[in-house]
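INFO  loader      accepted 1 record
INFO  loader      residues=208
INFO  predictor   begin
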Amino acid sequence: MAKMHFKYASMNSGKSIDLMRTAYNYEENGYSVLIVKPSIDTKAGDKISSRIGLERKVDFLLSKNDSVMRKLSGNLDKVNCIFVDEAQFLTPSQVDEFWIVSKVMDIPVICYGLRNNFMTESFDGSRRLLEISDVLEELTTLCGCGQIARYVGRKRNGEFETTGKEVVIDGTDNIEYVPLCGDCYLQKVKRMNFDKIRKDLTTGEDRN
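INFO  predictor   done
INFO  writer      dumping tokens
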């Protein structure tokens, strides 16, 4: 029976490149694929776009109120794999429907997306994907310090912010997303003084 996969990572980890490469491999071997992404990701319109310039048009855009089953009905004949980009923006019910499609139609569904938002909280779609996906795979990228980046910071006008709308597309409103390790997230975004905290924990000076 086919499986639903969730490949998750921070920004700049090559998720879109991996999607396009895997889809191309399927097609190169004579298989048919279907590519879907949520319409809330407006950065590349009806395309998947990577940071190195590769692009590919999607087959379907999903709005927040769309039913996956109704949207794809009649279009799954001879499809061998479904790919979903920016899967963190799916609703939990859409994730459930993709899971059902993978089982009922015996078609693998491979979802790519972020695990956490810029506040280290799970997106609704990501949370549901982590709960029910058959296969979980972490794709990795590096923080500027050289450690693995599992978090993302959001800059507005060059300054990290810790509150605001969950979804603001990269490159709009002077927004930039930065992949960060846990250490750098706490120090750069949360502005924690590790030396002071370490001293307090070691000496107990902050004890009340």
